[in-house]
Design brief:
Layout lengths: L1 H27 L6 E9 L3 H14 L1 E9 L1 H9 L5 E4 L5 H8 L6 E15 L6 E3 H8 L9 E4 L5 H10 L9 E3 L3 H10 L3 E6 H5 L6 H4 L2 E3 L1 E3 L11 H6 L5 E8 L6 H10 L1 H10 L2 E2 L19
Parallel strand pairs: 1-2, 1-3, 5-10, 6-7, 6-8
Antiparallel strand pairs: 3-11, 4-8, 4-9, 4-11, 4-12
Helix pairs in contact: 2-12, 5-6
Amino acid sequence: MSKFFKTTTSILLLILLFVFSCQKKSDDKKDTIIEGKATIYVDESILPIIEDEQAVFETEYNAKLHLVSKSEKEILNSLINDTAKIAVLTRQLSTQEIKAFESKKIYPKTTPFATDAIALIKNKSSNDTLIAQQDVIDFLNGKNVPSIKGLVFDNANSSTARYLTAMAGTTIANQKNIFSFKTNEEAIKYVAENNGMIGVVGMNWIYQPPLNLEEYVEKVNVLSVKPINKESYYSPTQDNVASGNYSLARRLYIVNCQGYSGLGMGFASFLGGERGQRIILKSGLVPERTPGRKIVIRNTIIKDKN
């Protein structure tokens, strides 16, 4: 009888473990394309525009997105280590990174949705609002550039730092007069309060600063940049970024590693769709595709009655 009892107990435990395992898998996939909850890791340099997209997406669908703001390097580590499943980045995954995912049977889906710009900013006390791209490269390589007192990055592991150092073929580690903080907000505040320093930040933070940052943004000028081998200077306006005249531009991507039809797919579709692209256009960034315009033609003019 005791043996029968032990066998029965073991079978019941196995059944419970099986049910619990199935329930856990079900919980992991309880979000759909337009419903449920999901965590999205966002490159900190483009957080404002993704917050705008999130607000509209959540009002249209029964969905709740939790945005986690991190540096580019932290996000990539989280994706590879399976901590993050959905991420918004300023570059595509490299061949080596894709191979690392595929070795784990993970096949990321990458969707481009906008083009952003890296802005160079300076305290308004300076009348100089022009800078040559070659001067920035020279300064990053340790050369003396009279027009640059120091460069201020948002984060040593950020996409903006990676972009400029890759362009210059160097790193910012232990370099003289090159500083880094943790966020774009800290970098903007530092430049606003220190003359002669040039900040390197995501343009989205200048176009759409949070309320607590507006007073600092008003104290800085956005510099116009002269591309290499060109004579004209271009500011990071929507037109200049779209035309390719502004040389410090980068495309934005949403990377989905969920492996099923969840909110990662739904949010990517929203970003690339009519409503999401219109939000991009109004933000000052460049949408991946220009939203259509509806023109209503009337045969008669209706006068308003007072």
